[in-house]
Amino acid sequence: MSLIEIRNLHASINGKEILKGVDLTINKGEVHAVMGPNGNGKSTLASVIAGKDNFEVTQGEIIYQGKNLFDLSIDQRAAEGIFLGFQYPVEIPGVSISNFMKTAINEQRKYKGLDPMPTFEFMKLMEEKKKIVELDSKLANRSVNEGFSGGEKKKNEIFQMAMLNPTLSILDETDSGLDIDALRIVAAGVNALRSKENSTILITHYQRLLDYIVPDFVHVLYEGKIVKTGPKELALELEEKGYEWLKYE
Amino acid sequence: MNGLNMNSFKKAIRPKEEDFAGFSCNIPQLITHRINQFNGFFFENKDSSLKINNGTIICSMETAKQKYSSILAEKNIKDLSSYEEGLFIYVPKDAQIDLPLQILDIIKAEDSILINSKSIIIIGENSKLKLICCDDTVNNKSSISENSLQIFLEDNSSLEYYKMENINNSSSIFTETNFILASNASLTTFWLSINGGNIRNKLNVSFEGEHSKAELYGLYLADRDQKVLNEISVKHNKPNCISTQLYKGILDDSAEAEFKGHINVGKNAYLTEATQNNRNILLTDKARVNTQPFLEIYNDDVKCSHGATVGQLDQSAMFYMRSRGITERSARMLLMYAFCNEVLSKASLQELKDKLQDIIKRRLHGELSSCENCVLVCNNPCESMDVDITKIN
Question: Of A12, A189, B289, B328, which sits most exposed with the smallest number of CB within 10 A?
């Protein structure tokens, strides 16, 4: 059974149509790369799935684990297992990462009818997951993303993903602004979290990331539609020929 | 004054002590020397814990004028005859007070009353004091309380001053506090306007010696039709002094706040450092804030800065938090709490900080609106919170 099915999705912002009929089906355990030039709707697709409300969905539907996604609020979608790794993670002064994560985990548990996670268990989980992305222990006590370097912010996204253990992760341009070492660490983190039970959408416009996280499928999002789908080799072809090539296809 | 008909208020008379039995401002785990003022009148604390064996004097202004006129004479206090019912505290030279002093100003009105008290505090050379002033009403009756306070910090002395204004919605409090700093003195103030119908605070700092510093922190939370004014004036009369101001406020419903911050750097006050910051969050379209920084600088060799912001809760932070599964309500609470915590985090008395965090949590949670007169008595920790925001840092 598919994990998420996006059917004929149209979305606009301020009356301007960005997504013009996206169809995409993802099964459990799969990694899908969504590539394409900037300004063609990749980040909009990520935001619409996560539930950002400045986008207006004008047509189409998204069925996630049998549920109509548009019936769920942003936080309900998260509690149902959807995670968005931000292209530009937000700074939240005064809220420490550990408090942020504790609140998120316990609110997700509350949604599922579970008791809050005992503190010692939470601390253990933090220690364990910090290692996955080599997140500096000192950072965990600092305010969320405040004064973090670009690399630290992206590591923090993957750390949060590890903590929340989502079913569907959407990583929006996780590779942007990363040097090669940080990219390796982030990719290793994503790979470590890969399983038969969860799926990932990687949004990127460089092939580079896909050397480290090998996708099962590559899609090209162009002018608001998925115009081409192929195996991982498609990324190499795009790298070689450029997106211009698509126009002639 | 502010549309208040003062004529309908009766001047408070000295109440009976037993009427105030049972009211206390408990801060769990924090032991203080308690000083009681009921309806603005000083009451001797018979509790033995108040015996401070280092020459510290705590008495009414009336007594002070009779017994300690020589101390008062040194300070050239204007209009001394008008000081009647207030409080006099004198910490002698080289004294360390082991516990914080806590002035508990409790208002219990039968009818609308007008309270007027003027107090003087002197902290001697090399002495240190932590002072907590709690203003509380214990019922819903209206009152107007006018407090004037002169605080002298002698050479090398230090004061940490906490003011907690937590009065009912039909009451007003007008304070005027003057801090006069000699050389090498250190002052930190926390001004927390937690609840009250109409709150006006005037805080004046005057540097009369070199190498002194003043850190002024403020936090105001107002909802319904509440009004809060903070008027601050810092006078750098001498060189090498440092002052900082950080005032933050959250305004809900139709609440109004005003911040007037005045920094004056005199001609001879070279190497002055003065900063001022006022930040506000408006939760509704009807809430209003008026912020007016005013810098008057008569010297070139200074570092001065000021800033003011008025805004809503950060929507991108809201989306970020919600995308992690935090509900909208909790995300709002966390952001507001984090905003307040920048001020609270500067406080050094951990037990007081914990209590304040609890009060602020309740306040943001909307609990105090429904249970206004039990602020003092309900010491149960805030159970109904779904988010753990006790240890934010």
Answer: B328
Tens of pLDDT along A189-247? Answer: 899 999 999 999 999 988 889 999 999 999 999 999 999 999 999 988 888 888 877 77
pLDDT in tens, B110-150: 888 999 999 999 999 999 999 999 998 888 889 999 999 99
- Chain B within 8 Å of A43 (Cβ-Cβ)? no
Token output for B136: 């509380």
Report pTM: 0.85
Residue contact A74–B334, C-beta within 8 A: no
What is the rounded distance in angstroms from the CA atom of residue B207 to the CA atom of residue B209? Answer: 6
Where are the domains positioned within chain B?
Answer: 6-315
DSSP for B37-76 reads EETTEEE----GGG--TTS-EEEEHHHHHHH-HHHHHHTT
- Average pLDDT (B89-94) is 94
- Which ipTM score applies to this complex? 0.96
Domain boundaries, chain A: 2-248
HSE value, Cβ hemisphere, 13 Å, CA-based, for B184: 8
Helix (H) or strand (E) holding B116: strand B113-123
Tell me which of 3.40.50.620, 3.40.50.300, 3.30.950.10, 3.40.190.10 is the CATH number of domain A2-248: 3.40.50.300
**Across the interface, do A95 and B330 touch by the CB < 8 Å criterion?**
no
